[in-house]
């Protein structure tokens, strides 16, 4: 753990989108605080998701957690103390990938002595497909040569350390990621919303034996958050939707 001062276990969530009411439930903030943990949120969405209007009007309802909003990269260093005081950093930025948009944030996380965890637990059609990277000269001559540099230079040279832990949601979610290495400890779990579904079952709002299948389309190929975060629509429409159709055909 970090050199955080004695006291309640302190968990810091670093998020690339404002925490919603649904996030409050699926991140189990109420359960964590009830158990005596200290929970803080570092909201860096204005840095890594530029060009999107971020609604934080509901933050006043989250009295149980300490939320810090970082509006600019220049303000990041003064929030280093928030991470240094953590016993665990839960990193919901980049999904284990590295882009110019999130580089400064991940450097901040890497400077901390606290262990940090990333997530690769929500597998979707095409998620584990074989990577089809364009030729190196095509990438260097493109509009984003810094992306190529970030993903080819040694991590230490760009101030990044690999994650201490990664949460997987099944064999299909285990794919190569820049922030995951041999030293990263794997934790096998499930998709983020599974426990929310289980609560519906436990409360009698849904029978577990019902033949129910739910797919929430992430709008891949058109997702505004992908462009804003630097992901650049890695899955094209022509790749994604035929695979999605085949998945539905198997289920039917």
Straight-line N-to-C gap? 47 Å
The first-level CATH class name:
Alpha Beta
- Write down the overall mean pLDDT: 81
Q: Any low-confidence stretches, pLDDT <50, length ≥5?
A: 130-138
CATH topology: Rossmann fold
Biggest β-sheet strands, sense, barrel: 7 strands, parallel
Question: What are the defining features of this structure?
Answer:
single chain; 252 residues; alpha/beta; Rossmann fold; 7 strands; globular
Please describe what this structure looks like.
The protein is of the alpha/beta class and 252 residues long. The protein has one domain: Rossmann fold. Helix content is 29%, strand content 13%. It contains ten helices and seven strands. Strands 3-2-1-4-5-6-7 form a seven-stranded parallel beta sheet. Strand 2, helix 3 and strand 3 form a beta-alpha-beta unit. The chain is globular. The N and C termini lie far apart (47 Å). About 4% of the residues have low confidence.
